[in-house]
Amino acid sequence: RRFSSARQAGHAEPIVIRGIEYPRDSFTNVTPKILSFIGKNKHNQEKHPLCLLKKRITNYFYTRFAGRTGNPIFSMYDSIHPVVTVHENFDSLLIPKDHVSRSKSDCYYINEKYLLRAHTTAHQSELISMGLDNFVVFGDTYRRDEIDSSHYPVFHQADSVRLCNQNQLCMRIQNEIEVFEKKPTEEFSYKQPEHTLDASKVVEQELKAFLIGLTEHLFGKGIQYKWTDSYFPFTHPSWELEIYFKDSWLELLGCGLIRHQILKNVGAGDRIGWAFGLGLERLAMALYSIPDIRLFWSEDPGFLCQFDVEDVNKNVTYKPVSEYPPCINDISFWLPETQEYSSNDFYDLVRSVGGDLIEQIRLIDSFTHPKKGTTSHCYRIVYRHLEKTLTQEEVNQLHKAIELAAAENLQVKIR
Ligand code: FA5
Ligand code: MG
How far apart (Å, rounded) are the C-alpha atoms in residues 27 and 264? Predict the structure, then answer.
């Protein structure tokens, strides 16, 4: 009652995000469902495929561009809040006022002034204005897009920038070249008016070599790729990189030389540089054979446990989990006092008794009795049938069989 009368009076409740109140207006189109994704930060969740990918990309940056003493020269940001201003997401990137990407049907607006970032490029100008020349930003991004196996309204991107001034560029190529034209030329398809062709080509080559290196680092040397010309208001020239994967060309990223005007606007007018932005889900889907983008939001242990690897460079090939619900049962026992015991023995036993119904087993607790010195283990077993829903009764029977077999074969005492 209170809410409906407030709304009738035109005082709709403000939108509250992290304790900050944003008044609603005619732009407001975020939904509670979309707002509920804020803070999930899948790219920062240990053992999540997006986090593994983030680490692999970051490692590549760190090794490819190391400082004199081997220290990384790229700054990495992965926790910048997704609420941005219209200025950050569009104006600072020279996106025209009437550009379709600004429309309410494409973006999630909080109100006229704020939206959920539609790309991580939204942070580019501010980070450059802080004085950074080399950085990479990972984050969740929001777009009112179709929903299918490769599109989702919330996804993740990585954006990167690398800048240098005249001296740094000459040092890099061990040659004297001019970065800027004395007088701007006309705009050519292959360069901006302010840049010399030499400088533009050097930066283009470094950008492309870096991105091919990254692609090969992720997919292996044999990967087939191609460059296509592209357009972004904030870069020129611009390209997209596609890889040939599973019988078709897949767009991985967009990139280009940063518009001189953008750099000038934030006090970096003496610099030239490149930027690129890529979609993490697309990359992860190809890399790990993940068939559907919705799986990245799965809390299902059958999905997540497949990415539980120590070495982030390990090749993981996702195996589809059955859609039938899991049944989770814990088992606790005292370890034998007179005989060797290892968790792997128990894992083998569970697999031999439970067969394909066992999706996952994990040690979740170990406890040593302070006086007796005996140790107890607790394991969590996830059961799941691939073709049907297991009943609790069936799981209980299996669980009982595992307890009996463990007591008999491993001399443990069920608690
Ligand atoms: C951009 O977002 C630019 N900001 C990229 C860029 C940055 C170019 C810096 C130049 C310099 P685009 O709209 O093409 O470009 O999106 C980049 C990537 O995000 C796409 O290649 C795709 O992998 C991913 N992507 C876009 N929309 C979705 C979606 N709905 N679901 C999942 N991934 C998406
Ligand atoms: Mg694109």
Answer: 31
| 280 contact partners, CB below 8 Å, separation of at least 6 | 43, 50, 53, 54, 138, 155, 156, 157, 158
Atom of ligand 1 nearest to the CA of 143: 30
Q: Say yes or no: CB of residue 326 within 6 Å of ligand 1.
A: no
Ligand closest to Cα of 147 equals 1
| 332-343 confidence digits (pLDDT tens) | 999 999 888 988
Decide whether any atom of ligand 1 lies within 6 Å of the 292 Cβ: no
CA atoms of 51 and 60, how far apart (whole Å): 14
pTM: 0.81
**Taking the chain, what is the end-to-end CA distance rounded to the nearest angstrom?**
53
Question: Is the Cβ–Cβ distance between 111 and 123 less than 8 Å?
Answer: no
By DSSP bridging, strand 134-142 and strand 75-77 are parallel
Question: Which segments in the chain show pLDDT lower than 70?
Answer: 1-11, 146-147
Give percent of the chain with pLDDT exceeding 90: 78
What is the pLDDT at residue 387?
A: 76
What is the model's pLDDT at position 321?
A: 76
Per-residue confidence (pLDDT) for residue 33, from 0 to 100: 85
Q: Complex ipTM above 0.95?
A: yes
Instruction: Report the C-alpha gap between 398 and 304 in whole angstroms.
Output: 24
Residue 118 CA, ligand 1 centroid: distance in Å: 9
How many A from CA of 16 to the centre of ligand 1? 28
Q: From the CB of 139, is ligand 1 less than 6 Å away?
A: no
Burial class (CB in 10 A: 0-12, 13-18, 19+), 277: buried
User: Ligand 1 center to residue 226 CA distance, Å?
Assistant: 17
Q: Is 251 in the pocket of ligand 1 (CB under 6 A)?
A: yes
Tally of CB atoms within 10 A around 76: 16
Atom 32 (ligand 1): residue with closest C-alpha?
Answer: 151
| Ligand 1 atom index nearest CA of 120 | 4
| CB-CB contact of 113 with 134 (8 Å) | no
Q: Ligand 2 centroid vs 255 CA: distance in angstroms?
A: 10
